[in-house]
Amino acid sequence: MAFFKNQFANVVEWEEFRDDMIFWKWSNREIKKGSRLIIRPGQDAIFLNNGKIEGIFRDEGDYDIESQIIPFLSTLKGFKFGFNTGIRIEVLFVNTKEFTVKWGTKNAINIPTPQLPGGIPIRANGTFNFKVDDYISLIDKIAGVRDSYLVEDVRLRITSILDQLLMRWITREGRDIFNLQANAFEIAKGIREDLDMEVIDSGMTITGFNIMSFSYPEEIQDMINKNASHSMVGDLSRYQQVSMTDGISSGKVKGGGTTSDMAGMMMGMKVANEIVKNMDNNIKKSSDGIYTKGDKKPNFCPNCGEETTGANFCPNCGQKLI
User: Fold this and answer.
1) Three-class SS state of 186
2) In sequence order, what are the beta bridge partners of 236?
3) Which of 23-27, 69-73, 116-120 has the lowest mean pLDDT?
4) Helix (H, G, I), strand (E, B), or coil: what is residue 13?
5) By the number of CB atoms within 10 A of the CB, which of 208, 235, 300, 319 ranks highest?
6) What is the value of pTM for the model shown?
7) Which phi and psi (to 5°) does residue 227 adopt?
8) What is the pLDDT of residues 247-285, one digit of tens each?
9) Residue 26's beta-bridge partner residues?
10) Are strands 36-39 and 43-49 parallel, antiparallel or unpaired?
11) In this prediction, what percent of the chain has a pLDDT beyond 70?
12) What is the largest CA-CA distance in the chain?
């Protein structure tokens, strides 16, 4: 027994702890007589033997491995520290906290819309939350071949499919592409469920997903703002008229006469077009002919359809024409 007294008593603990580390594996060293296990707050210690779970210890504290840990291990509980070599075992330390990760679209997502056939490039950003909840799946899929795993590894995995999910949920159910923020909660809820299915086989769960904001190209955002301020959402021709008017009144449309005259001429043409449209709207239709509100006599009798030839009464049926 004196031999073991002089042996170095290993301290089994998370030696490379980082806040952004999901798990870390203590391995390839002997656990000898007198070894101790230290579990800090927010950590679980999983004892592994040949890749299989021997025991899980969740309470923080300082434990004597021989007397307080070994008796609870499934296949090693009968092991007695009486050999010079001790035993080799792996201990997986898992960070039990919920992680919060910022995300943002790497590239703009081109969302198709009837208003702009080429689509609208949209960016988004927010946060997602996750935590480890299944140690068996975690070991089978990740910890079995890795000694550590970082939050950045999960972030990269999530963002690699996030663009596709944003596209799916933004274009769903005919949402207003120009007012996505109003639907941010529903979009985020759908994405969270899809992401949870993506990582569940790795022993993790997505506990939250939030969209902080959507952003449009500057020119699109300007159009949205002007449309909102003038109550003209979706009316592109009126937006163009207002933009031209704003440009002239603010002095942004200048040019020593030529440019401003051109702008004025364009505005005049637009006003003239509107007048023509209004006149067209005053056209009245009869069952057999068309005449305008200003005409005194129709070309065809509204009663029998006979050509009137400019008479005051229909030559066929006698219908009064004025």
Assistant:
1) helix
2) none
3) 116-120
4) coil
5) 300
6) 0.65
7) -60, -40
8) 655 565 555 455 455 555 656 666 566 655 655 555 444
9) 91
10) unpaired
11) 70
12) 137
